[in-house]
Structure formats: C-alpha cells, structure tokens
Amino acid sequence: MGRFSKWFYPGLSVKRWVIVLSISILGLSAGVALIAVAVEQLQDRTRSLASQFLNFLGDYALVLAGLVIIFSLVVMVISIVKINRNITGVFTGKQKKIVDTMYTKAQLSRGPNIVVFGGGTGLSMLLRGLKKYSTNITAVVTVADDGGSSGKIRGDMGVLPPGDIRNCLVALADTESYLEIIIQHRFTIDELKEHNLGNLILASLAQKIGFVNAIKELGKVLAVRGRVYPATLEPTISLRAKFKDGTEVVGETKIAQENKQIKKISIIPDKAEPLPETLQAIENADAIILGPGSLYTSIIPHFLVDGISDAIKNAKAPVYYICNVMTQKGETLNYTASDHIKALENHSVKNIADYIVLNNKKISDKHAKIYKELDNAEPVKIDEKRLKEKGVITLQEDLLEDDEMQVRHSSAKLAKFILGHLIKQDYRNKSFIDHYLLDKKLNEVEQNR
C-alpha cells in the first residue's frame, strides 16, 4: 500500500493527469448514458427533468451527446499521453513515447545473436555500434589486466580486474546518462587516486555476491543491451610471454613494456575454465567477432581458456576477425594482416577465422608521421595473396573515425559493415533487415545534409 501511495506524492506530474483522465472517463460515461436516454426520450418526452431537458434540446440531443463523447475521448488520449511521458521520462531521462520504446526493443530483440571476444578500448568501441542493431549481444572480456586501478583492486581485494568489464557495461548501456558519467568517474584524492568508481562498485559487489552476479546487477542499473562475461573466473590468471630472443616475462603490463617480438603467449595457471554461458552463446551465435584490440593481450588470451578455440571452430556462425588499423608497439610491429592470422592460428586452431575485416582508407600523412615518430607504428599492410593462401576471405572498407587526434575504428561504420555482410551471407530475419536498412538510409540522409 505504501508503494502505491507514492504515485500521489507531489512533484511526479502524474496525479493531475490521473484526475483529468478520471474526469474524462466520467464525461464519456455521461455522454453514452445521454445517448441512451436520448434515444428513449425522443419517443416519449414526458419523463423526468432529464426528459424535459431533452425536450428543450429536441433533435440536437444526439448531436450534443456525440460532441461530449468526442471531447471526452480527446481529453482521455491527451491524459494518457501526458501520464506516459512523465513516467517514461523518469527512466529514459527524456520524454519518450512508450510505443517508441516498445518498437525499439521489439526490433532489437529480433537482432542476430552476436558473440564478441576482446578487451581494452577496442571491444567497448565495437559494442557501442552493435547495440544499435541488437540486444542479443554477448561480450566476453579478457581478465588478465594487472595495471592501473584494475590491477590494484585485483591485488588488494582478490577479485577479477573490473576495468574492461566496466567499460563494456557502459558501452552497452541503453542510453547515455549522468549515471554513466558517475560510473566512469576517476578519483583524484590520495586515498582513492586513479581508482574508478565503477571498478570499486563491481569489486565490492563481487565480494558479496560473486563476480558474474555483480556484473548482472550493475548491468540492470545501466539497462545494458546484452550480456557481459569474463573470459574465466580464475582470479589469479596472468599472461606469460616468450619472446623470439628466448627471454620470458609474466604480466600484461610488463609484456607491453618489453617491446620485443613475441613468439608465444601462455597463461598462468595453464588451466582455466570458461563460463558455461559463454560456450552456450557461441553455440547459438549468428556471428562471432574477434577484436578489435591488442592481438597478444586482448584477443589471443581467450583461446588459452579451455574449450574456447574448439567451440569457435565448431560453431555454425561465421567468424570475423577485425584487424587493427595500425601496428602496435610491443606486440605487432612490422606485422602484415596475414601475420595477425598466423598468430591467431598458432594459439588456437587452423582456420579459426572465416573473414578478416580491414580498413582500406589511406591514413593521412600527418597521422602516419606522428605514429611513426611516437611508436614506430605504421598501417597494417593488406597482403591479400597470403591471406587467400590461408583460406581467409578479405573484407575491406573505409572503417575510420573522423578524428584529428588519433587513428581508430569508427564504431558505427564497423558495426554497420559487419552486419551488412552478415545479412548478405547468412542472416535472414526480415524485421532486422528492415531495421538495418532504415538506419542506413537515415545515416545517408544525415551525411548528405
């Protein structure tokens, strides 16, 4: 009863329209009753005060009754719209019609089942694009991060590093809001310096209800479009790199700092179990996407978890590998596109990817010079002949974000390109295709303005 009474608290802008709705319903009822009386009284105009009133109105009684009904119906519709807008405004942060919300959710629920493997900023970037087309998204995130806030939380609290998972939850959030700004807030005071509020929330929840449940609960708060899972629940997992010069180092942060050519990546402990939900998602997938992200520290670690490589290889869904635009210091300097595929297969199984997605827009001379000077990085060369020999189909497109500061993928272009290819090859849900084509048409109109 107490919860029900809250609907009548001041400031909700709801009860006034409930009153108006009630009055309009009474008006509608009175109009219907008036017609009933009018029909009877037109035959016998000798009854009661109402009959006398109808006698006064004469043949206009039916017209008046009709006008009362029409007016009441209009007021009812306005009241319902106002109640709808004020209620949904609380949850969406803006006035939005329920019918629009229902339509959007219905369309997205018919989208393809997409499983994405990655970590770091690359994965969250792609998720921002994919969530516009489907809520059936499963993001699987690497959990070997040992640097920054995540690394400190992992060492102090004994939980999985929460940083990349937090970023994925925010990326999949239904709408941009102040809540997301709060979740992403990074402290500057000494005691909490460099810690992220979202990381602390996830870690605290994980200690109470377990890491998977913590992700689910924070996901509910953010109303995420999809699911996010850690690659494994092994809390002490670390990466070990063996370099071509024979040396080894343990720890994701140290691997990047060594700036040597990597020969092999492994995990400690060498046995790590995947989540059953991940294996189920792979089996039911319409598309599986690897990347984008750091090849050796964000993509390959997934294949080192027991059963993941075989599950992907045996899946019916096409597998897309999104190759980075630029080579990466400490991981892939001087790598061609086929070198990326070779590294994937060396750590998983042969023919792990069906397609490799590559940017073919030329990098500006300005950007090329900056990347060369800072990290000795350069655009990944597309060696189509070697890719064909490996049995990988090359998909090329302008996939770059318009950014003066850095070279990076566009989440919108990348998601649209992969899903457009999926439509042509495998996915045949008409409702989703119509949604995709409408979005594409709207974007083209916007670009031509």
Notes on the structure:
The chain is α/β, with parallel strands linked by helices and 449 residues long. The protein has 2 domains: 14-86; 107-142 and 231-447, Rossmann fold, CATH 3.40.50. The chain is built from 20 helices and 10 strands. The chain has helices spanning 2-5, 15-41, 48-57, 61-92, 98-109, 120-130, 148-157, 163-171, 178-183, 197-209, 211-222, 252-258, 276-284, 295-303, 308-314, 337-346, 365-375, 384-389, 411-425, 430-447; strands at residues 114-118, 137-141, 227-230, 238-243, 248-250, 262-268, 287-290, 319-322, 355-359, 393-397. Strands 3-2-1-7-8-9-10 form a 7-stranded parallel β-sheet, with helices on both faces. Strands 5-4-6 form a 3-stranded antiparallel β-sheet, with helices on one face. Strand 8 (319-322), helix 16 (337-346) and strand 9 form a beta-alpha-beta unit.
Specify the CATH class of the largest domain.
Alpha Beta
Mean pLDDT: 85
Radius of gyration, in Å, reads 30 Å
Based on the coordinates given, report the CATH architecture of the largest domain: 3-Layer(aba) Sandwich
Classification by helices and strands: alpha/beta
Mind summarizing the main beta sheet? 7 strands, parallel
